[in-house]
């Protein structure tokens, strides 16, 4: 969709994502906005759309030629989960960014109009400024929490910042015969995807296509890298991390069954903390987890305090609510079946399904 006409009376319009100058202006707006995240960047939502066969869109509001509000979207289609306009797709963040003093109401009105034009019965805003719970909008609080804390001043201080029980696990990991590599080359990508596929199958989740991961690493350039832990030259744990605003976010990661015995995941996250500090980062953003889940407790064990998140969804009048929660009773049986699939089968089918989960 490339229409230039406004979607509201006050001039909210569709972003010109085919215009490199507009994209550069949007990147700059996100970079200087205090609530900007990696998932607001065109480098994210345009890359994931292209890699998954979905569509990237954006809404902007301007004043005297300057961008004052921005809302990125991926329009995602799935034969299983239906169509959704997500901000942002395949992300745990996104939503509306607005300059101080800007009334966000017109942006939400424009989002509804865009969803109608794209035949998307659902909008999901994963952060940012949120609308009031009315007119088809609903707010969901505390189903997920985010975890972030400052990085320590040096390696030893970082180790001591980890609570005692988890610190003991990290020390055991440091004593194991493990090696650590960081890069973005083919060796790094292939190792990561090998681990990633097994990890997702074990969780009962369809794995994303490798093209999605590659496209993000390529688009982020120096703002992304891959840290891999190996045992006897074989990758056992690996994570793709994003860097934004002085923070590191380990995003797509996982470990093999062997990683648990070797405590390779513990080594991976500790090494990433050290690596990020050496890169100049001040914050470790462990990302979101579902409240009360295993990942939620894992992050608390590392000394991170949960920060409840609030998301917003809009459902077109008369449309059914979208159901894509992996913890729902509707999907729990499917997850159990997926966990039992041979890895080769899961790797073939997973990307076909995952490109529509969003």
From TrEMBL:
Residues 167-300 form the BioF2-like acetyltransferase domain. This is FemAB family PEP-CTERM system-associated protein.
């Amino acid at each position: 969709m490339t229409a230039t006409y406004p979607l509201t009376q006050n001039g909210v319009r569709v972003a010109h994502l085919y215009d490199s100058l507009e994209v550069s202006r949007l990147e700059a707006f996100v970079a200087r906005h205090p609530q900007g995240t990696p998932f607001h960047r065109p480098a994210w939502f345009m890359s994931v759309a292209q890699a998954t066969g979905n569509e990237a869109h954006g809404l902007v509001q301007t004043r005297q030629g300057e961008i004052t509000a921005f809302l990125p979207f991926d329009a995602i289609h799935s034969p299983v989960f239906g169509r959704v306009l997500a901000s942002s797709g395949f992300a745990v963040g996104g939503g509306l960014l607005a300059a101080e003093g800007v009334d966000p109401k017109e942006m939400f009105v424009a989002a509804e109009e865009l969803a109608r034009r794209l035949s998307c019965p659902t909008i999901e805003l994963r952060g940012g400024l949120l609308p009031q719970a009315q007119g088809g909008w609903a707010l969901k609080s505390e189903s997920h929490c985010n975890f972030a804390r400052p990085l320590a001043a040096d390696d030893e201080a970082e180790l001591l910042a980890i609570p005692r029980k988890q610190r003991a696990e990290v020390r055991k990991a440091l004593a194991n015969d493990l090696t650590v590599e960081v890069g973005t080359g083919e060796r790094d990508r292939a190792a990561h995807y090998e681990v990633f596929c097994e990890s997702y199958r074990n969780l009962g989740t369809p794995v994303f296509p490798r093209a999605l991961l590659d496209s993000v690493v390529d688009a982020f350039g120096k703002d992304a890298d891959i840290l891999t832990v190996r045992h006897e030259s074989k990758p056992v744990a690996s994570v793709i991390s994003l860097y934004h605003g002085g923070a590191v976010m380990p995003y797509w990661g996982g470990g093999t069954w062997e990683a648990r015995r070797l405590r390779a995941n513990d080594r991976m996250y500790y090494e990433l903390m050290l690596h990020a500090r050496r890169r100049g980062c001040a914050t470790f953003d462990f990302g979101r987890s579902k409240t009360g889940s295993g990942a939620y407790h894992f992050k608390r064990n590392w000394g991170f305090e949960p920060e409840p998140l609030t998301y917003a969804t809009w459902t077109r009048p008369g449309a059914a609510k979208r159901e894509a929660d992996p913890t729902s009773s509707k999907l729990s049986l499917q997850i159990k079946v997926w966990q039992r699939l041979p890895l080769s089968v899961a790797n073939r089918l997973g990307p076909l399904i995952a490109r529509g989960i969003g």
